[in-house]
Amino acid sequence: MAGNGSASKSSAGAIPRQRKQLPATRPPGAPPDPWTVFATIPEQPPSRISRALRTARRSLIHEYALVIYAGCLLAVLMTWPTLRYPMHTLPQDLADPARQAWQIAWAGHILSSDPIRLWHSNAYYPEPLSFGFGDSLLGYAPFAMLGDGPLAAVLRYNILFVVAHALLAIGTYALVRQLGARPIGSAAAAIAVACAPWRLAQEGHLDVISAGGIPLALAMLARGHGYSLRHGFRPARRHVGWAAAGWAVAVWQVSLGFSLGVPFAYVLGLILVVLLVASIVHGAVHDGRLALHRFLRGKHDSLLGWRLVATDTLGATIFAGVALLIAVPYALVPESGSRLEEIRFFSPPLRGLLIGPAESRVWGAAHVVPRSSLGWAGEMSLLPGFVLYALALTGLFFSIWRLRHRLLLFLGLAVTVVLTLGTTFFGGRWTYLPLFGHFPASFDLRIPGRLMFWVTLILAVLAAGAVDDFVRRAEHLAELRMPPWPGPWMRTAMLAPVILIGLEGWNATAHPVVPAQPAAMRTVTGPLLVLPTAEISDQMVQLWSTSRFEPMANGGGTFAAARQSELRTRVASFPDMPSVEYLRSIGISTVLLLRAEVVGTPWERAGDVPVDALGIQREDLPDAVVFRLSRSSTASPQPSGPQPAPSTGTQPGIGISPQPGLGVSPQPGGSPQPTLGSSISPTPGLGTGTGRLQPVNAPASPGTLSPADPGAAGTTPRISFDSSEPVRP
């Protein structure tokens, strides 16, 4: 026992054996420790190329990049077949689209050559400020500085037409997303606004279609002020750059025209008043003695910092200055008709908000009978979509928006509907007329139904709240199952509102072929009058004039109606002495008679009437007859447009082939009217009535002009043309 005790004692008091320590340094000549080397290698910074590629990759798949792709694709589909033949067709008709294509082309041409003459266009000669007849679309002028002629003008118009739809969808998505909606709700709102059925009746008015700058500017301003419906003002999210960009977009939007620009200006003014009142109330609620101190120092607990206040002040000043500068020529345009009578005529009834336009593939045929009860169906068929109505109504009760916001949206909806009805709502004495009735007629505010844009936008915000609430509930339901994400049927159900809204905007818009420009329009100098002249056909003549922009008396639409009506009445008997003297009195030196267009008009025989006794000259061209009214003692006025290109050996006006299949139809019988003293026969053409002509007994050599015998009354110059094609007898 004692031995055991001593043994245990010795074992308990034993000192443990120390392990041999590793050397702190490696022996000389030994390689470095690989782990130490790995840990001390510094991370190489990415090169500039790598950083650029990484940034580009992130930007290409960013949410708003995907929105831009989707918006452009949606615009192409919803306007199809606009881009199928973009150089040869126009959407809806050949009236207003042709005139607006000329407007854009004129703005680009004159701003790059003679900006002082911007408002004195080549049409409606000799009327001053003729560019102020209707919305100017001045904001599109930079796009018109590339290309010239009718083909370029038509292509430019069609591209801008599609881009306008894309910009509206993108801008609405950005606005609703900034207000606090999710991507699906924002997409539903964007499609609801861009594809609203009532907009299909406005496809011929690019100034009404081009509303994308409004929601985009509002989205940028809201982002710059750090505001959303779900979170209110968040000072940490304020950004002066976004606010400045929003004001820049607003200035561009008002430069497109006042039919949308004036209501937009009212909305911006209301927003500024609300911001001012909110800032005062916010400062009063907090310590009033320190409010000025916080404002000047830009503390984060203040509603607006001094940078945002300065940006808003400068932006609003520039906006008002640009609007007033553009408004000056419009204010100087003479009045035509009674504004009040036109507003009453175009004011829609309340049932118009339930009637779809004829251009709607879904509701066009179904609403033929109710649409026939409207006074002017094109401006009174204001259906924004029944699916949108249902979603907006649901959004009043089930929504991601707070109750007070829903009540404010409902109040705004009621106000905009009342304004859209114009004088239908108690004569408009306290609604539409005080706000818009005092503007000149040239501001084009005589159609209250175009305020339907604001009704649609508010409905879309309410609908987005309902769609988002449905998506939120669906995701919550999916979290209770395995796997915890929505299945294919649930995803389809979440996308169903978006699909249904898009289907209601399916268009049946016509896309007529643009007639080819007559060859004589590229060579005749002005001031001129093109016959036949009428309110509709003159708009196509304006488009044809984009090659050289020669001054001409033609001008379509309802602008300068009294003067244009007098012109058409006075020249109905042309060529005779009263009409010639009248044209000379207004400065017209050339009359161009288009052979293919005069059938069924008062000028059907004008090309066959002897003109020697009238003291004018006549020149026969394959597709036209040119009458020169200048007396021999009077110098011809200098053309204001660019001079024709140097001759290449071809007779001016001849040998320029029109577009195949797109020319104007020939006269009955398949040939132009023969001129006095010669017989002509056309060669086969491709959809045109021009062809090549071979006169009988023409003494002139090929390609030359033979003067008429001065002793023979009623004779005209004879033209001979060399052609490699056989001439039919």
UniProtKB/TrEMBL annotation:
Query: Membrane-spanning regions, if any?
Result: 64-83, 155-176, 240-258, 264-285, 306-332, 382-401, 408-431, 451-471
Question: Quick one: where's region Disordered?
Answer: 1-35, 631-729
| Keywords carried by this UniProt record | Membrane, Transmembrane, Transmembrane helix
Biased composition annotated in UniProt, kind: Low complexity: 1-14, 657-695
Ranges of biased composition (kind: Pro residues): 25-34
**Signal sequence, renumbered to the chain:** none
Q: What is this protein called?
A: Uncharacterized protein
UniProt organism field:
Actinoplanes aureus
